[in-house]
Design goal:
There is one protein chain. By secondary structure, this protein is mainly alpha-helical. It starts with 6 loop residues before the first helix and ends with a helix. It has 20 helices and no strands.
């Protein structure tokens, strides 16, 4: 019902499911997502707060609490969201997911001793062979004032992650970020191209490559990358989208990107990915365009932003609007 824009009916059915299966987390999570998708954020938060009292079972309650914390971070009180996650971390010393979420929040990242403690706790659970603690450690070092002195260690950590899981794009993006900060744009481009060669559907890495090419005014090459991304997406969908579809969990993928974007005011690629995911899930062009507008404010010359906007307009059957955007773009050059 939501996909065919019968939102009221979707909410009604979800509310009935919550009444009939009040002790189960899933209907409450779905209802809160529906409210949030309509920008009814108070209703979404209230729904989850009610669920905290209704749902039984430690695992079910924990899922509700995590989603409530995410909702607070995005739409309510950020500190309340952080406090909820910290409390969850204290209750379960082995909960990697909660610690990973905390480490993605800028307020936590700025508290180096706390952030390092969280990384160490993830390492103690995963063991020395783990990958997530390496990613988080590299990210923490990169956010520190003396990151330049740790560049060799950062590269070693991230290359271990990339080598162990070639489809994992997050360490690739972090490595690209470091090379860009160092002014080694050629190396950043090389890392992106190597990743795309291994995994052609790594849309987020492709967007990074497009942004790199744009900085060098290599617009025809950027357009070529976008065309390849479009073909790969039609053939198989991006890795993140496929994973979300398999798990039935678009909300988790979207919330993760929203938190990442809210923690980095200059993050163009996360906002473009958000636009793609939100449109894929909701078919609501206006909600997707909100994130493209933000990305455009950060980088007004971005080909990736224009291409994504045109893609959505075309899917909406608004070919004239899409053509006008392309014509306006061409007239600038």
């Amino acid at each position: 019902y939501y996909r065919i824009k019968q939102v009221a009916e979707a909410v009604r059915l979800c509310s009935i499911a919550c009444e009939r299966h009040s002790t189960v987390a899933e209907p409450w999570l779905m209802l809160s997502d529906l409210y949030a998708a309509q920008s009814h954020f108070d209703d979404a938060l209230n729904c989850l707060q009610i669920a905290m009292d209704k749902v039984v079972g430690q695992h079910e309650k924990r899922n509700i609490a995590i989603r409530l914390a995410q909702m607070e971070l995005l739409y309510g009180n950020r500190q309340t969201g952080i406090d909820l996650l910290e409390e969850l971390a204290k209750k379960d010393k082995r909960d990697i997911r909660v610690r990973s979420l905390l480490l993605s929040i800028r307020e936590v990242q700025r508290k180096q001793p706390l952030a390092q403690k969280l990384v160490d706790e993830i390492r103690s659970v995963e063991g020395d062979a783990g990958l997530l603690w390496r990613l988080k450690q590299a990210s923490l070092w990169l956010s520190s004032e003396d990151w330049y002195s740790k560049q060799d260690q950062i590269v070693k950590m991230l290359e271990r992650c990339i080598g162990s899981d070639p489809e994992w794009s997050e360490p690739v993006i972090l490595l690209v970020k470091m090379y860009m900060r160092m002014g080694r744009i050629d190396r950043a481009e090389e890392v992106c191209r190597q990743c795309i060669a291994r995994n052609p559907s790594a849309t987020d890495v492709a967007i990074q490559l497009v942004l790199i090419l744009e900085k060098q005014k290599r617009f025809s090459e950027a357009q070529e990358v976008l065309n390849k991304v479009r073909m790969a997406s039609r053939a198989a969908g991006s890795w993140q989208v496929r994973l979300a579809l398999k798990a039935g969990d678009f909300s988790s993928a979207i919330d993760k990107l929203k938190i990442r974007a809210s923690s980095d005011k200059q993050d163009v690629s996360s906002r473009i990915m958000l636009a793609r995911l939100i449109y894929e899930r909701t078919k609501d062009a206006n909600k997707a365009f909100k994130y493209l507008d933000q990305a455009e404010q950060i980088d007004p010359e971005s080909v990736a932003v224009v291409a994504t906007r045109v893609l959505i307009l075309t899917a909406e059957g608004r070919s004239k609007d899409a053509r006008k955007i392309l014509d306006d773009r061409v007239s600038k050059y």
